[in-house]
Design a protein that fits this description.
81% helix; elongated; binds protoporphyrin IX containing FE; membrane; transmembrane helix; Integral membrane protein; transmembrane
Length: 125
């Protein structure tokens, strides 16, 4: 079970890398690419599994406020990624590029916010 938990942590870190790395890679032509979309999906799924594992540990229970905030942020990241991905497919080439760009920046920025929450909330609470 411990190994399974650790494997999920690995996927959680790879999902984060896919969102943030994907965002950096498209910084000169901002759009949702499959790496960002799948990274967002993977983060939500692996995060929920990790939270489930963490809450099984009665001696060291998780910080539910922190997990709640991370869940909320991750839901916004997934919703924005999915809706922008769908809008991009429908849009005529070049149309509404400014709106797409700001949403992609929001997705990347919120993913970084969740990294900060993941690391700093634990250290300073
Ligand atoms: C964009 C979404 C997310 C990002 C970028 C993210 C990022 C991270 C990072 C970088 C870590 C490693 C921290 C460390 O070990 O020092 C982590 C751990 C963790 N995350 Fe997330 N996370 C996201 C979503 C979620 C969600 C939705 C949940 C569940 C509600 C969640 C639950 C957890 C848990 C329980 C751990 C601890 C794993 C362990 O060390 O055993 N995460 N997250």
């Amino acid at each position: 079970m411990k190994l399974f938990n650790e494997i999920i942590v690995v996927f959680h870190l790879l999902g984060m890398a896919a969102i943030v790395g994907g965002w950096l890679a498209v910084r000169h032509d901002l759009k949702i690419v499959p790496a960002i979309l799948w990274g967002a999906r993977v983060q939500l799924l692996t995060g929920l599994i990790l939270a489930g594992f963490a809450s099984m540990d009665k001696e060291d229970p998780p910080n539910n406020a922190k997990l709640g905030v991370k869940l909320l942020v991750a839901l916004v990241v997934v919703a924005l990624s999915e809706s922008t991905w769908a809008a991009q497919k429908k849009a005529v080439a070049g149309a509404a590029q400014a709106a797409v760009a700001s949403k992609v920046n929001l997705v990347g920025g919120l993913a970084v916010l969740n990294v900060l929450i993941a690391v700093l909330w634990r250290s300073y609470s």
